[in-house]
């Protein structure tokens, strides 16, 4: 069995949905499970719905563009509003509005997960219906009946044993199955999400539980590149890389593969292919066990909108292991992801990702014990397999606040 994943860019409009059909016709539809993300930027649009709902007590103005976006795609796909898919989509929107009208929770993360999951539910309903209308029989699966998680909303952890049992029971291995990326459900059947860009991870979860032959992620790029072409010039395709190299690149922030995706695949040595949905015949990039990066080039990664925090003790005493332990307990408490660490005798610096918007609470807590300096809006640049020319090129025209070098990697925190 093979697992395919199509991201939001691949189903951003009616043409993208039609292209999914063409890829499946080329690759074959038997023994396939297809994971699909929300269409285009619909996760972002639904985040606006959440914010308006919690801050203004109103969601209808923000929801209307979401409805219109999907309706326009469906009219282009089905030609008229009488197709059964329209009723299915109306039912989903009614379910979303029913939640927003009756919800009593003010917990942002909980509300977020109950709302944004509709992006995936809508996209898979439309794609499944379109494939059926073109004679491609398929099973539409609700991923919440397959992937079971804890209740860490917006960053749920998979309950692997229960998930394995559910997927084994629900998936028909012989046919074509369509399901949602990014989403699951907790023990109380509330919707959960696996973190932004978690659809790749969903593909990895299904592949692991189904002992799949391979996973293919269909992207709007030729494969894994040595740099993001939107940020860096002259990005080049990597023909193949190892699991370990891909995990390193993902950890440092490479956006092509989700950091969690590779771990379940590596455990069972399931190969991962990253290919272009625009040119499906091209080989793309293969990620497999033990194969060196080819060609071996410096790989450039940037994570924007980071925060650099520098701490020192109030009495200029040493920063000891006990202090560091206390600092990391606060990072855990406030759900802060640490991307870089550097310390000296009396100072400790970290570059963090303020994903859950808890920076003010963290800083307030840290100031009780430490002298605190911090910069927001900085960028964290990483070069894997660096050379002197690559470092010099990256440093040019930037104010570097922190630099760290290891055997294979250079990292810079800089103001662009």
Automatic annotation (TrEMBL):
Keywords: Amino-acid biosynthesis, ATP-binding, Kinase, Nucleotide-binding, Transferase. One of its GO terms (molecular function) is aspartate kinase activity. The keyword Isomerase does not apply. It is an enzyme of class 2 (transferase). It catalyses: L-aspartate + ATP = 4-phospho-L-aspartate + ADP. Gene3D superfamilies: 3.30.70.260, Acetylglutamate kinase-like, Aspartokinase, catalytic domain. InterPro entries: AceGlu_kinase-like_sf, ACT-like_dom_sf, Asp/Glu/Uridylate_kinase, Asp_kinase, AsparK_Bifunc_asparK/hSer_DH. Pathway: Amino-acid biosynthesis; L-lysine biosynthesis via DAP pathway; (S)-tetrahydrodipicolinate from L-aspartate: step 1/4; Amino-acid biosynthesis; L-methionine biosynthesis via de novo pathway; L-homoserine from L-aspartate: step 1/3; Amino-acid biosynthesis; L-threonine biosynthesis; L-threonine from L-aspartate: step 1/5. Its EC number is 2.7.2.4. Residues 2-276 form the Aspartate/glutamate/uridylate kinase domain. Belongs to the aspartokinase family. This is Aspartokinase. The lineage of its organism: Bacteria, Pseudomonadati, Bacteroidota, Flavobacteriia, Flavobacteriales.
């Amino acid at each position: 069995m093979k697992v395919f994943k199509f991201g939001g860019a691949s189903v951003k409009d009616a043409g993208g949905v039609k292209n999914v059909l063409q890829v499946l016709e080329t690759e074959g539809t038997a023994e396939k499970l297809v994971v699909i993300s929300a269409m285009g930027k619909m996760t972002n649009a639904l985040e606006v719905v959440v914010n308006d709902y919690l801050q203004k007590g109103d969601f209808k103005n923000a929801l209307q563009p979401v409805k219109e976006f999907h309706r326009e795609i469906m009219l282009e796909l089905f030609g008229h509003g009488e197709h059964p898919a329209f009723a299915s989509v109306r039912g989903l929107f009614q379910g979303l509005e029913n939640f927003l009208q009756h919800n009593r929770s003010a917990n942002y993360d909980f509300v977020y997960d109950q709302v944004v999951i509709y992006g995936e539910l809508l996209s898979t309903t439309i794609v499944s219906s379109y494939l059926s209308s073109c004679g491609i029989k398929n099973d539409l699966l609700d991923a919440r009946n397959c992937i079971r998680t804890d209740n860490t909303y917006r960053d749920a952890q998979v309950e692997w044993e229960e998930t394995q049992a559910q997927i084994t029971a629900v998936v028909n291995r012989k046919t074509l199955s369509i399901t949602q990326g990014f989403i699951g459900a907790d023990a109380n059947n509330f919707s959960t999400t696996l973190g932004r860009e978690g659809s790749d991870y969903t593909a990895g979860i299904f592949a692991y539980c189904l002992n799949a032959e391979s996973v293919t992620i269909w992207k709007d790029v030729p494969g894994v590149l040595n740099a993001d072409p939107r940020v860096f010039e002259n990005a080049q395709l990597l023909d193949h890389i190892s699991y370990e190299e891909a995990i390193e690149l993902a950890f440092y922030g490479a956006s092509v593969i989700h950091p969690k995706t590779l771990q379940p695949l590596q455990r069972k040595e399931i190969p991962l292919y990253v290919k272009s949905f625009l040119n499906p015949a091209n080989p793309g990039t293969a990620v497999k066990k033990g194969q060196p990066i080819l060609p071996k080039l410096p790989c450039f990664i940037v994570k924007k909108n980071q925060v650099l925090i520098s701490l020192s003790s109030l009495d200029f005493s040493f920063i000891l292991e006990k202090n560091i332990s206390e600092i990391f307990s606060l990072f855990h408490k406030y759900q802060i992801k640490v991307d870089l660490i550097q310390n000296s005798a009396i100072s400790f610096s970290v570059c963090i990702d303020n994903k859950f918007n808890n920076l003010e609470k963290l800083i307030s807590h840290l100031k009780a014990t430490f002298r605190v300096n911090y910069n927001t809006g900085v960028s964290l640049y990483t070069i894997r397999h660096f050379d002197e020319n690559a470092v010099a090129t990256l440093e040019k025209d930037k104010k570097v606040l922190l630099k760290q070098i290891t055997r294979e990697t250079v990292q810079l925190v800089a103001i662009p």
